[in-house]
Amino acid sequence: MKINWRLVVGILISLVAFWLIVKDVDPAQMVAAFTKANYWWLIPSSLFMFVAMWLRAQRWRVLLDHRVSLVSSFHFSNIGNLLNNVLPMRLGELARAYLVSRRSSVSVMQCFSTIIVERLLDVLTVFGFLMIVLPFAPTDEVFAKAGAVMAGIAFAGVLGLFVAAAWREKVIGITQKVSAWLPASLREKFLHQADDFLRGIQSIGLRKLLISAAWSIVLWMGWIGGSWMMLLAFVPGAAWSMAVFVTCALALGLTIPSAPSGAGLYEAAGVAALALFKIPNDVALAFSIALHVHGFIVVSFFGVYGLDREGQSFKGITNAAQGVSAAPPQ
Fold this sequence. Notes:
Layout lengths: L4 H18 L4 H10 L5 H22 L6 H17 L4 H13 L4 H26 L7 H26 L1 H11 L5 H51 L5 H14 L11 H11 L5 H29 L4 H13 L4
């Protein structure tokens, strides 16, 4: 049986990260933190998360040039997030590409191009928020360096994609020469997909990119709001800057390979960020677990609802996503 080493490495990283934080936590104190938490804050936290999910759907719709409805974009995004939370290898991205290609004139590869731009915009936005909040944080060394590296990669990625799209014919010509060693059928398929991908980037344009960047800022304010409400449940009077810093740390932490839904690594990032604000590890871990589980439940609820509204089943969409990875539709 073929071993998925990427998944194995991700799970190992998650286990090591979780062990590093759990070994310094007093279970009794963590239980006490859960007991003392004010769970009324879950209501506004859920509302903020819902708004962020809706705005993410709006941003994706802009990148797709409004070729799907906002409701469909919302359902497709949530179905993808549901699969990402419970399955390895980010199969959710393949699932929503499949769904969009079946509902509109957007091809799978063109959809992939918008998804990649989404991810790069997320990193740039998170880095921007991190730079805003650093003056309010006790230290800026670790996360500032991590943020700078990730933002630099994201910026270079966005720039590189649009430069390649602008010179699409030349890039495809070079690619054709470089890939001459491949079998003819495989090379033609690869070149077709590469050209389709670059056409997707080309169709976005500067105006839609700037609009999407604006939506990115607003939607991440929604995620920050959700984190802040949950933080207030465990740390009464927590400042907004603490919530921004923690949200940025969680986002950057999840860029590292991990188990599905970032289990273990998510909690480690939350504890590490809150430790800088002198929050005890037991309280920080309780908060991180609560935020993770709460987010998982909210995403899963809307993901399952999306499956129902789109007439899909979990097994069916999983098989379709795996089919896309094996042989993307033309």
